[in-house]
């Protein structure tokens, strides 16, 4: 197994969390005898400072030639005054568009060791295991026309979807559901939006190709309430770009912190993996960053790009082991007021755990 992985540390805590994710991947490579080659490139604010653009041509070219891309985070307050194509976030959107990953997979899980970290009652979150499948290249974020008028008094965006865009991401959701609890909840606003009416009609028609998967529909406003009152009843949640962005961040309360959420953007030329959290510049460089989201994004990389399902599972088990030991960053102190440890300590603990798990597996198969 050979993999060329482009690492885009980005801004804020991005370099800190991607460092830990790379260390875990390197541990898998070392134990299993794989050849993972890592190369780092600039994106976002870091690229603006050095290259005067949030997505340098060299970075984009390297990403397009890679087997997978692992991203940290982009953005910082000092770049908030930039406009147009100079904004760090524009570089990320341009990268997503170039790589072509139209389906963003965001797992949300209630961790047994972190039950007290959620503002929700433990009996509400217990057993929750959701996969949010978000359409990533359409809707308000990309459709034209869009503009902030020169007078500064008005602006507009266009929400647009085509049947083909809806079908391709719906196929991803139904296929994922077949490996889970076989339930797809499609979230829209069909009582108000014409785009949602098209979305609902298209998903309903496509569901006939998956008779073994149950389909249900929900309006985004009522679903946003159900997500935090009865989360354990859901399996795969399918929705469009804007709703998916908001709902997946809301779902972070189930896991206890936004820092726990990983993501994979699949379906294009090259898959992109990144933690859901932002750049958190206020804690950058203070060894307080939560690396679990980045580490679990690395696990998704092994699953979806490399097809290394067992190794991916071992990383997830190593995360559970580390949490069970009480090793957490400040965002996971919870109601128990756990003492926090540095980012590097957590990364090293996951490396040790995944190494142990993989070696045990290899020793078992050797018997």
Task: Outline the structure in words.
The chain is α/β, with parallel strands linked by helices and 367 residues long. It has two domains: 1-103 and 263-367, Isopropylmalate Dehydrogenase (3-Layer(aba) Sandwich), CATH 3.40.718; 119-255, Isopropylmalate Dehydrogenase (3-Layer(aba) Sandwich), CATH 3.40.718.10. It has 13 helices and twelve strands. The strands form two sheets. The protein has a ten-stranded mixed sheet with strand order 2-1-3-12-11-4-5-10-8-9, sandwiched between helices. Strands 6-7 form a two-stranded antiparallel sheet. Helix 1 (14-32) crosses helix 11 (292-304), helix 1 (14-32) runs parallel beside helix 13 and helix 11 runs antiparallel to helix 12. The relative contact order is 0.16. The model has no long low-confidence stretch (mean pLDDT 95).
How is this structure best summarized?
This protein has 367 residues and is α/β, with parallel strands linked by helices. Helix content is 43%, strand content 17%.
């Amino acid at each position: 197994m050979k993999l060329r992985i482009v690492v885009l540390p980005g801004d804020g805590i991005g370099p800190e969390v991607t460092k830990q994710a790379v260390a875990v991947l390197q541990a898998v490579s070392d134990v299993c005898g794989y050849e993972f080659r890592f190369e780092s490139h600039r994106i976002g604010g870091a690229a603006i400072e050095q290259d005067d653009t949030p997505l340098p041509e060299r970075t984009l070219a390297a990403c397009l030639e890679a087997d997978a891309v692992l991203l940290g985070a982009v953005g910082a307050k000092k770049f908030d005054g930039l406009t147009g194509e100079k904004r760090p976030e524009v570089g990320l959107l341009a990268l997503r568009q170039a790589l072509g990953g139209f389906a963003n997979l965001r797992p949300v899980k209630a961790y047994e060791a972190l039950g007290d970290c959620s503002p929700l009652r433990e009996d509400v979150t217990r057993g929750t295991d959701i996969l949010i499948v978000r359409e990533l290249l359409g809707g308000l974020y990309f459709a034209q026309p869009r503009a902030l008028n020169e007078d500064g008094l008005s602006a507009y965006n266009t929400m647009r979807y085509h049947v083909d865009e809806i079908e391709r991401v719906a196929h991803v959701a139904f296929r994922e559901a077949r490996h889970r609890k076989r339930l797809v909840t499609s979230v829209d606003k069909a009582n108000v939006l014409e785009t949602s009416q098209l979305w609902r009609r298209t998903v309903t028609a496509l569901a006939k190709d998956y008779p073994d998967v149950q389909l249900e529909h929900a309006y985004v406003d009522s679903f946003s309430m159900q997500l935090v009152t009865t989360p354990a009843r859901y399996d795969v949640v399918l929705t469009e770009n804007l709703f998916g962005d908001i709902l997946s961040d809301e779902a972070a309360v189930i896991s206890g912190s936004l820092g726990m959420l990983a993501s994979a953007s699949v379906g294009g030329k090259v898959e992109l993996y990144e933690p859901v959290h932002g750049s958190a510049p206020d804690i950058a460089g203070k060894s307080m960053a939560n690396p679990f989201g980045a580490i679990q994004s690395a696990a998704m990389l092994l699953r979806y790009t490399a097809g290394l399902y067992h190794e991916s599972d071992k990383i997830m088990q190593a995360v559970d082991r580390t949490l069970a030991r009480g090793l957490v960053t400040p965002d996971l102190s919870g109601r128990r007021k756990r003492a926090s440890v540095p980012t590097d300590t957590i990364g090293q603990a996951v490396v040790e755990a995944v190494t142990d798990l993989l070696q045990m597996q290899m020793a078992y198969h050797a018997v």
